[in-house]
Design goal:
Number of domains: 1
CATH class: Alpha Beta
Order of helices and strands: EHEHEHEEEHH
Structural class: alpha/beta
Distance between the termini: 9 Å
CATH topology: Maf protein
Strand order of the largest sheet: 2-1-3-4-5-6
Shape: globular
CATH architecture: Alpha-Beta Complex
Number of strands: 6
Amino acid sequence: MELIIATTNVHKIREIRALLKPLHQLDILSLRDFPEYSQPPETGTTFEENAILKATDAARALNKWAVADDSGLVVPALGGAPGVYSARYAGERAADIDNRRKLLKEMADLEEIGRTAYFECAIALASPKGLKKCVKGICEGMILTKERGRNGFGYDPLFLKHDYNQTFGELEESVKNQVSHRGKALEKLKLILETI
């Protein structure tokens, strides 16, 4: 069965492919295989809404099963920011480093419990006929005052998962994939994909 990962983000594609690798019956594609397709704007106010929007649109337009993720960092002390705006926190075309710098600036006066944060991921699965399932994963931790590590992407060098002494930017990819918000969501989704 062909399954499209409805993103052009190479980091997300690599992570999702690695996590779905045990499902040998899947022929995994991404939106990089369909350059003529353009994604709808992320107009949702929650990760679930955006994931569903992206999965259902890609599945319908490309007439294939599709999976889409929407995820981001939530800092309760900042009123939930960056939240659904995680990828564009410092502006529409902001680079990861710009988003991290803005986050550190916004959190400069916060200490200990104020630096608590979590990554949230919603992953939607859709067929050409519509939504099949949306699952969620959360990974809790805290935001450091300085970046550590060169692995991962986004806010990974700032995020220290509870009970770990390495940031997501320092952890080996295979370890991060097992404990991350995306990994947790995909574990739930794998159970559904196995039955299709």
